[in-house]
């Protein structure tokens, strides 16, 4: 199974086959509008504008599973992303990324790279998660908003990045994936 094998819902209620992105490098991100990490939208859009012509697609997936930080409707989320951060990359319909109702894409991504969420790899955020959701530690669960998965042109997961890793910090990995 690969990322290209999944279909996702768009914000307007239609569906999108991820196979339509075959041959492109994908950066798949769970997002939220009312999170301390929301300004990462700016960095994601910058990467999209810089590398889009070379084959990068940033795919945003809003999720309200982390302290209710994405409460809006799909329409409200689209408006927020556009007006507040000038987002032009696709932001899909709201999804669950964990639990029994997790979208199959996210179950696949989590299993493909369970992450390395430790106090060293996620300073500050680790302590927060240890307090509010200690049962998530040591699992493949997405721990918070703005977890990112880099997907190669072949649809295989290249790497998972925890929320505290900024878009700019993964620039060199994106360049490598685009060149590969």
TrEMBL record:
The keyword Transcription regulation does not apply. SUPFAM superfamilies: Thioredoxin-like. GO terms for biological process: cellular response to oxidative stress. The keyword Oxidoreductase applies. GO terms for molecular function: peroxidase activity. It holds the Pfam family GSHPx. The active site is at 35. Keywords: Oxidoreductase, Peroxidase. It comes from the Bacteria. Residues 1-179 form the Thioredoxin domain. Belongs to the glutathione peroxidase family. This is Glutathione peroxidase. It comes from Trujillonella endophytica.
